[in-house]
Amino acid sequence: MESGDAQPPSPLLSLRAFLKTSAVVLGLLPLFVSFSPPDRVRTEPARGPGPGPEGGLVLFRPTSAQELAEVLDRVWAEVGEGGVPNVAPATLPSGLDRFPVSRRKQVFVRAVVPHVVAANERIRAQRDSLEAIARNLERGGRASEVELLFLLDMARRYRVKVDPAGTRADPRAALNVLLQRVDVVPVPLAVAQAALESAWGTSRFAVEGNSLFGQWVFRAGAGMAPRNRPPGARYAVAAFPGLAEAVDGYLRNLNALWAYEEFRRLRARARAEGRRPDPRELAWGLLPYSVRREAYVQEVLDVMRQNRLDRYQGVRLVRLVPERIEAVLGGTRLASGRETAAPDV
User: Which end of the chain is more exposed for a tag (fewer CB within 10 A), N or C?
Assistant: First the structure.
C-alpha cells in the first residue's frame, strides 16, 4: 500500500478519559521537500497528539464533510470573533467539493488555521529559548551544557551546518543563523498556500494523503503519483499521516531549505526593524515554490486578499475546557494518535 493511502480510523475512545489523561505535546515533525528540484532529507518519527501545554491540539476524525462542517461550527462558536479553538480535524474527508464555494472555503479555513497556529506556537517556544540564550551571551554569560545540546539539536533539525566543537567554544554564529530560521510563518500566507495547493481541501492528494502544500518526494514507492506523471518520472506528491504533519513539514521547509533564503531574509529584516513580518511582503520570498514564480505569488496574494485571511494574523489558540470539548464534539471520533510514522523521503 502506498504511503499516500488514507490511514485507518482510530478505535473509539472515551472522550472524557482521553481529554483528562492525554498530555503529550505535539513534537517536531517530519521535514518534506516542497520545491523543484528538491533536496533529499530524512524524516523523524511522528509523535502522538493530544492536548498539551505548548500548542497541542485535540484532534478529531470526521467521517463526512457534513460532520466536519457541523463540528467546526460548534467549536468555533465557543471562541467567538478573534479566537482560534484548540480543536481541529486530523484529516479531511471527501465531499467538500459538494458544498457551495463560500461554505467550502469557510470549512477549509476553520480546519487548517488551528493546525498552523499550533505549529507556530511550538516554533515560537523554540525561538524564545534561543533568544534567552542569546541575551545571556550578550550579558557576558556562558551557555550551559543543556543549552549547547539544545543548540546542536536545533541546528540538526533546521539544517544548519555547524562544527560541534566550534559551537561549544562560541555558539554565537550558530545562534545567529538559527534565529533567522526558527521563526513563525504568518497564518494568512500558510492558509492561502494550502488553499491553492489542495484546491481548498478537495484534491485527491489532500483527501487521500493529507497533502496540503504540494510537497514532492522522489524515493521509489513513496507518496502519491500524479495521474498525468510522464513515463519514467520518479517524483510523487508526499503523503502524510495527518494534517498536522503536513503543516509541520511545510513550515520546516520554509525555515530550513536553501530555496527559501530570501523568504527568511525578508522576515529577519522585518524583525530587525521592529515590525511584525507582513505576509504580503514575505510572499515574494516564495518565487521558488512554483515554476509559475511571479504568477504564483500573485495568486497567493489574491487568495489572502479576497478571503480576508489577514484577520488570522497574530491569532492565538483558545484552549477549551474538556467539558466544552466533549459537548461540541458529541459522538465524533477522536484521533487517538499517529499510529503510522511518516515515510523517509
Answer: N
